[in-house]
Amino acid sequence: MNSKSHQPRKPRRRERTNAPVVRLILLSLGFWAAALWLVSRVPGIEAFGIRVTILSVRAVLALTGAHVEQLGQILFVGKTSVTISPDCSPHLPYLIFAGGLLATPATWRQRAIGLLIGALVIHVFNVARILALVAVLTTHHEWFEFTHVYLWQIGTIVVVLAAFVLWLEWTRRPARAA
Length: 178
What we know:
This protein is mostly helical. Helices cover 66% and strands 7% of the residues.
């Protein structure tokens, strides 16, 4: 007979409760690194983002009746101008969103829907951001740096995070009975 008494197992200091979060962060960072590498190696990705952004901004301004001239990546609207640089296109915020989305457990159908709707939401937000900056430039030029660097950068982070959280909520809801 064994003289040792059975003692309950001591709980480990840290159970694997943080594993899904760590997995999400590591996979997201891996995707982000791969995407940045790809964008740096394929200049057409940034060029496409800039082209689509310029076309979208011009289309919305045309709907308002504003006269827009374009010289390369510079848009002239009235007496003001904006340069649409790679940082002005939504491809980098979208890649952050996509990295989190692809790292999260979901069906491929849910991921595809999330990627498409996320691209649309982030693009529409970006066009609205640029239009607002054009308005700031034409009415309160002195506010441009602050709104461009602080308000809209934070706004972009909030939109990307909100889109991701809404997608998570959508994927977590129970399936409806047919």
